[in-house]
Write a sequence for this structure.
């Protein structure tokens, strides 16, 4: 390094002011993309798929998507923090199985059973977070292990049987409605709103973005980075427990097989909604649009009588397309 | 005034395994004084500044701040003492906006029952104020930092220090990556800090900046303090000879009470 100041670089004084609308449009690019995609799908399926455009079908889509959406709220926070949780599908299965076992075989009151399940889920979240914080084990590795282990535990404690039936009041949680709105949809809206406020309007949310963007800077400015990493896993695991209990209500039974591949639906929705896997970028509204996009795609194809295998292929390419759309903004046409 | 010294560090040592980064350094900063901390790479300047900012702990040595014995055990403690650091890497989160970076870790909040919410508009307004005060041309405080030029990023980092400084600002190579115009702006920003009677510790390789901005020059070489001289007694050649070792050692006894050259010159700003 020279002792005198280097004057070789061009002196940049002012940056041309980009127009505000352009700047806002750019920052909402991913959400606008998936929003337009969703509108396109809705228009398309309304025109060509029988019975797509009906309030019954809309309500059915929203109800079916509720668990994915609830877990996706937590997953958005996890991914914004620069982490990932691949175990949520297995957690949904384990939570449901445990809940059904407690209620059916041990006669534990349902509310208390739910609290027990939440505690177990929080412990799972703390486990993932601790391995990340104490030993620096990537959450990708821990949760890929748990994806298998938690599912195994669910089979073990249930002897691979479906546990049921549950008290008659439980299915109301899935099939009931308040003021005409199905309860799972209300729950989904409540969780999504809470997630939206948390991310955008609270200190916790702001610090999550900072942590995902630059953990070194975040901890220099007093943000409790380790504690926040623990919190996000506890949040997503507890939301998975809520999802698990909702599925028990829907099936009137707990089974270790419930929630298989849910992690893919959830992560797909979050990514399609514009949240960056590298952390620090994403919005709750994008995640909700992503959840709806994937759900409408599936529903429309089912109504059209398309083979579910084709849906699998389509969902895969939609994820790739969404990430490409996001990268295009950052890297232009040629990343290398 | 009982004491003129804001910070007094005695016999600071820091070793990383077998490597001794600091070998017993005495370092003091008077209230309102600007110290240029110079030396070759690896001389121990950054280690010293990191100790003052609470980022690392000395292996041994003692510190007094404002007349009291203290240990700057974390960056949080440093902030509470009113010590702000402008890091060489600027310490910005690229994914956050200008205002969000300025208030990072110190967000203004409003309580609603058991909940707390960010005062977004208030923070934006104050960020705009402090940037205007530094005469910085940043497109919008709601723009992401990722799109800013080097000088603008520097300004955001300096603005953050400006907003929270109470006693001392540590500047690690503030102009290393800047062009001529941007360096001039950054120096103007530092002058505003000085004008408020805040102490400044300035790490820099920029000799004109050392001569123009500082009251005292502290020279480090291989983990030791080899020079500690009022800037008025020095010229750039003398500083360079101390850095390179052509001149072994020059430590002037501290003059008390400290009087700023700028104050004598009749206030620059």
């Amino acid at each position: 390094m020279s002792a005198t100041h280097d004057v070789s670089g061009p002196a940049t004084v002012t940056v041309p002011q980009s127009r505000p609308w352009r700047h806002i449009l750019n920052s909402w690019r991913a959400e606008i993309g998936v929003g337009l995609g969703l509108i396109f799908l809705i228009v398309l399926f309304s025109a060509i798929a029988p019975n797509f455009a009906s309030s019954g079908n809309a309500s059915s889509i929203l109800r079916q998507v509720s668990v994915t959406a609830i877990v996706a709220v937590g997953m958005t926070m996890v991914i914004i923090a620069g982490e990932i949780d691949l175990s949520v599908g297995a957690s949904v299965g384990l939570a449901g199985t445990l809940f059904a076992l407690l209620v059916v075989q041990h006669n534990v009151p349902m509310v208390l059973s739910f609290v027990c399940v939440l505690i177990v889920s929080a412990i799972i979240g703390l486990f993932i977070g601790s391995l990340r914080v104490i030993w620096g084990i990537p959450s990708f590795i821990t949760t890929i292990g748990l994806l298998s282990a938690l599912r195994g535990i669910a089979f073990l404690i249930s002897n691979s049987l479906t546990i049921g039936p549950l008290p008659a009041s439980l299915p109301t949680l899935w099939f009931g409605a308040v003021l005409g709105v199905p309860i799972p949809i209300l729950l989904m809206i409540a969780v999504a709103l809470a997630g939206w406020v948390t991310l955008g309007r609270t200190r916790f949310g702001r610090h999550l973005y900072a942590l995902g963007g630059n953990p070194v800077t975040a901890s220099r400015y007093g943000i409790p980075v380790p504690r926040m990493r623990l919190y996000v896993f506890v949040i997503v695991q507890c939301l998975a427990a809520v999802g698990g209990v909702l599925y028990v209500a829907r099936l009137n039974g707990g089974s270790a097989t419930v929630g298989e591949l849910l992690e893919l639906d959830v992560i797909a929705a979050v990514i399609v909604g514009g949240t960056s896997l590298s952390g620090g970028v994403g919005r709750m509204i994008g995640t909700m649009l992503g959840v709806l996009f994937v759900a409408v795609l599936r529903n429309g194809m089912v109504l059209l009588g398309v083979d579910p295998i084709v849906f699998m292929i389509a969902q895969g390419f939609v994820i790739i397309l969404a990430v490409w759309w996001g990268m295009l903004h950052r890297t232009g046409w040629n990343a290398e | 005034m009982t004491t003129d010294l804001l910070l007094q560090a005695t016999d600071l040592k820091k070793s990383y395994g077998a490597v001794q980064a600091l070998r017993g350094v005495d370092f003091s900063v008077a209230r309102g004084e600007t110290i240029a901390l110079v030396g070759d790479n690896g001389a121990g300047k950054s280690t010293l500044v990191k100790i003052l900012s609470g980022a690392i702990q000395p292996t041994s040595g003692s510190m007094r701040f404002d007349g009291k014995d203290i240990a700057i055990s974390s960056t949080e403690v440093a902030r509470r003492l009113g010590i702000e650091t402008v890091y060489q890497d600027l310490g910005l989160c690229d994914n956050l906006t200008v205002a969000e970076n300025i208030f990072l870790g110190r967000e203004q909040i409003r309580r609603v029952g058991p909940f707390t919410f960010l005062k977004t508009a208030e923070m934006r307004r104050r960020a705009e104020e402090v940037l205007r005060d530094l005469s910085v041309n940043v497109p919008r405080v709601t723009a992401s930092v990722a799109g800013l030029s080097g000088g603008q990023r520097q300004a955001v980092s300096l603005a953050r220090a400006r907003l929270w400084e109470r006693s001392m600002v540590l500047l690690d190579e503030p102009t290393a990556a800047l062009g001529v115009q941007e360096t001039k702006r950054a120096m103007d920003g530092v002058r505003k800090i000085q004008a408020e009677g805040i102490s400044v510790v300035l790490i820099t390789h920029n000799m004109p900046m050392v001569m123009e901005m500082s009251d005292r020059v502290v020279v480090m070489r291989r983990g030791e303090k080899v020079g500690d001289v009022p800037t008025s007694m020095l010229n750039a050649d003398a500083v360079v000879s101390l850095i390179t070792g052509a001149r072994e050692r020059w430590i002037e006894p501290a003059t008390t009470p400290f009087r700023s050259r700028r104050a004598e010159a009749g206030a620059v700003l």
User: Anything to note?
Assistant: DSSP finds 14 helices and two strands in chain A. The CA atoms of residues 80 and 92 of chain A lie 22 Å apart.
